[in-house]
Structure formats: structure tokens, C-alpha cells
Design brief:
Elements: H1 8-20, E1 26-30, H2 37-49, H3 61-67, E2 74-78, H4 91-112, E3 122-127, H5 134-145, E4 151-157, H6 165-169, E5 172-175, H7 181-192, H8 196-206, H9 210-218, H10 220-236, H11 241-257, H12 259-280, H13 293-301, H14 305-323, H15 328-338, H16 359-362
Parallel strand pairs: 1-4, 1-5, 2-3, 3-4
Helix pairs in contact: 2-3, 4-5, 7-8, 8-9, 9-10, 10-12, 11-12, 11-15, 12-13, 12-14, 14-15
């Protein structure tokens, strides 16, 4: 009972290796955020320890305990979202975070020396493995070079390029791809039982990320938060430059507190500007924000194709700069300054809302 959607070839390959007894001692599970990497890793852990001939069955004692998070041989850590970020001029904070990350890996490393307690394999799962510091990565490398028997490491990551090549080379790569949007829409409507209009919207907004789509169906706050971010992006283009630079300061503060929340906001900006590009190039049927098509059309009419393309390039550069630890304030100042501006219609006194989550909720 593999729960991961849209990964048939990957699941077939993993099932074959388990049946043949040729499982690898370490897997690098790669894919976008909320695409289903952790679900696939847990399914693989079930398959390796399943007591049924048809693994993973999902109902035997081993599978049940793993799915409930109670199995003694399934150990995992999720690296702190901001733990790998270095604070400019704060060497002590950097050293503290480096120590925490190294200690987390050390805990798993020590656990790997012990035999399984209640299953056939001990599974050591590291979420956000691409956020490991070099010190932490080098520590895990020692274990990967001389793997103990009956231990399987699973490293979950979004970007292979952020990881040490020596770590990557010692893992078997497992790619988890986004699902084609029409296929995901059909699944939501026909299997999950979602109304057709909602299935279409959620599938588009998820951009094929099955994990996000299924969570959005069960948790209405995700779609509400997405709507709030989208409406703020609509207003952003009309903000004065003074207000934009105030926003840049807010983003810098929030980035140091919770980098993921700012990155998600920038993803929303990028999605919006790509929708503008689709409209400008005659591909409106492919826009993501289908429930805001009127706003997209209005802004697209007032922007040139060159302006839209150039700003998408700026957004891509900003993400790369943040990955390279460029000073966040410089990145955000550049983004708000270079964004084309559309003046508000006369008499429109709407006050732009924040493009970031309420900070009290993200601490």
C-alpha cells in the first residue's frame, strides 16, 4: 500500500529492489517542498520492515507502528529551517547552530551502531538534508562510507546542489516528481471526492505537489493563507517606493526569524509574475491563479512583456542570492526597487496588506 501519488516508476523500482534483497544502505530522496518525499520515505520504511508478503501492507504490526510514529527503529530529525543560515556579524550564533546540527547528526550516528530493536531494518531519516552544515555533512559521511548492516539512511532534500558531492555520491538517488496538474485534478475529483471546481483550483495552486494538495483539502487554512498572500501580491505592485522599502526591512527581520515563510512569499510572487507572462504570451489557459484571472488580465494590460520577463529574472536571481548567503537586506531592497510600478486608480485608497504571515504566528 504505497501512499505516494504519481510516482509509479519509482515505486516499482524500489519494490523490485526490496523483493530482490538489493536495497541500498542510503537513499537521497529529492523533490520540491510538499511533493510527497516524506510520505515516500515512510512507505519505504514500512516496506523494509513489513511482516506481509505484499509489502508494504499498511496493516501489519510493523507498518501500523511506523505509520503511527511509534516504531523503535524509525528515527528521524528535521533540521531547523533557519539552522543553516549564518547571521551576518554574529559568529557566536553561527557556531551555536553548527554545534546543534552536528549534535543532531551525531545522535543518529550513534543510533546506527546499535542493531534493530523490533524490526529488520533501522531507518535513520534526515529531513531538509540540504541544510546540513559542512561539519554535520562530514560527520554523516563517515557513517555512509562504512555503513553498518541493517541500517538504511534516508536523506530528504529539495536541492542536490546544496549538498556535499561526497555525500550525494554515496546515496542512491530517488526523484519525487510533481504530478501532472490534470492528473492530480482527476484524482482529487474522482478518488478523493472533491467538487470539480475546488479540485481544479487546488490542483492548479499546488502546481502538482500532491502533498500540498491533499493537505489543502483537509486543512482550509492553507487555501485561506494562499488567498491572503495572493491579494497582497496584487496590491504590492501599486505600493510607493517608501512603503516598499519598509516592506524590505520587514522581510529582512522575518527572514532571520523564519526564512521559510519569506521564501514561500517569494514563491507566491514568482507564481503571480509567471501568470502575467502566460497571459502576455497568449497562454492564459495555463495560469495557476485561476480564481484571480481578472486581476491578472488588468495588470498584464498595463505591463510590457519585457518588464514581466525582466522581473521574473530578478526573482530567480534573488532566490539564488539567498542560497549563496548574500545579505538578505540587499536582496530584498533590490527586489522591491526593481519591481515595475502601476499607479493606483484615482480615488483608490486601499491600504496594502502585509505580504508576510503574522509574526506572532511564526515565532
Amino acid at each position: 500500500m504505497w501512499r505516494t501519488l504519481g510516482q509509479e516508476s519509482t515505486i516499482e523500482r524500489l519494490s523490485h529492489s526490496i523483493a530482490e534483497g538489493t536495497t541500498h544502505h542510503a537513499y537521497l530522496v529529492l523533490g520540491p517542498k510538499n511533493v510527497g518525499k516524506r510520505t515516500l520515505a515512510i512507505d519505504l520504511a514500512c516496506a523494509l520492515n513489513c511482516e506481509s508478503a505484499d509489502a508494504p501492507c499498511g496493516v501489519c504490526r510493523a507498518c501500523s507502528r511506523i505509520l503511527e510514529g511509534k516504531h523503535a527503529d524509525i528515527l528521524s530529525i528535521a533540521l531547523d529551517a533557519g539552522a543553516a543560515e549564518e547571521v551576518e556579524g554574529d559568529e557566536e550564533s553561527r557556531k551555536r547552530r553548527t554545534r546543534i546540527l552536528t549534535e543532531q547528526i551525531g545522535d543518529l550516528q550513534r543510533a546506527s551502531t546499535l542493531p534493530p530493536y523490533e524490526g529488520r531494518f533501522k531507518i535513520l531519516l534526515v529531513d531538509h538534508a540540504d541544510r546540513m552544515t559542512n561539519e554535520a555533512a562530514n560527520r554523516i559521511l563517515k557513517t555512509l562510507e562504512e555503513p553498518p548492516p541493517h541500517v538504511v539512511w534516508m536523506l530528504l532534500a529539495e536541492a542536490e546542489g546544496r549538498m556535499l558531492e561526497t555525500v550525494v555520491s554515496r546515496c542512491q538517488r530517488v526523484d519525487v516528481h510533481t504530478m501532472p496538474v490534470p492528473e492530480l485534478e482527476r484524482h482529487l475529483a474522482q478518488v478523493v471526492g472533491v467538487q470539480a471546481d475546488q479540485a481544479r483550483l487546488v490542483a492548479r495552486v499546488s502546481r502538482g505537489r500532491t502533498g500540498w494538495a491533499l493537505q489543502a483539502i483537509s486543512d482550509a487554512t492553507l487555501m485561506a493563507d494562499r488567498a491572503s498572500k495572493t491579494e497582497s501580491v496584487i496590491q504590492l505592485i501599486s505600493m510607493t517606493y517608501a512603503a516598499r522599502f519598509d516592506l524590505s526591512r520587514e522581510m529582512e527581520t522575518q527572514y532571520r526569524r523564519d526564512a521559510d515563510s519569506v521564501v514561500e512569499a517569494l514563491d507566491q510572487w514568482t507564481t503571480w509574475w509567471r501568470d502575467l507572462l502566460l497571459v502576455k504570451t497568449g497562454c492564459a489557459e495555463s495560469v495557476v491563479n485561476v480564481d484571480y484571472v481578472n486581476d491578472i488580465n488588468q495588470q498584464a494590460q498595463r505591463l510590457s512583456l519585457e518588464q514581466v520577463r525582466e522581473y521574473i529574472g530578478k526573482l530567480n536571481e534573488a532566490r539564488q542570492d539567498l542560497d549563496l548567503n548574500v545579505i538578505p537586506r540587499l536582496v530584498f531592497d533590490s527586489l522591491v526597487y526593481t519591481m515595475p510600478r502601476i499607479a493606483k486608480p484615482a480615488g483608490d485608497s486601499a491600504v496594502p496588506i502585509s505580504v508576510l504571515p503574522n509574526t506572532s504566528e511564526t515565532q
